[in-house]
Design brief:
With 83 residues, the protein is mostly beta strands. The chain contains one helix and five strands; from the N terminus they run βββββα.
Length: 83
C-alpha cells in the first residue's frame, strides 16, 4: 500500500520519529459508543495494482497497529480519484 493524502489533511504524523510521515485529517464523527463529536483521525491508503488484484481474488486486508493495545478503528473505502 502507498500512503495517500486524505482530502482536507490537517497534519502529518510520525516524521519526527523517523517514519515517512502519515498525512491525517482530524475530524469528529457520530460514534455509536463514543457519541456525537467523537474525535477521530482519517488516513488514506492507495493499493498497488498487484494488491488490487489480490483483493479482487479474495485476499484479506490486514491492519497492523504498533504496540500491544488495539484501539478502536474503522476501515472503509474512499471515493475513486478524479481523472
Amino acid at each position: 500500500m502507498q500512503i495517500g493524502r486524505p482530502e482536507g489533511t490537517t497534519r502529518v504524523l510520525g516524521r519526527s520519529q523517523g517514519y515517512l510521515g502519515l498525512p491525517i485529517r482530524d475530524e469528529t464523527i457520530n460514534c455509536s459508543v463514543g457519541g456525537p463529536e467523537t474525535p477521530a483521525v482519517t488516513t488514506a491508503w492507495i493499493p498497488t495494482p498487484d494488491e488490487v488484484a489480490a483483493i479482487v481474488a479474495g485476499a484479506p486486508i490486514h491492519v497492523r497497529i504498533l504496540g500491544t493495545v488495539h484501539p478502536p478503528i474503522m476501515v472503509s473505502i474512499g471515493e475513486p480519484p478524479v481523472a
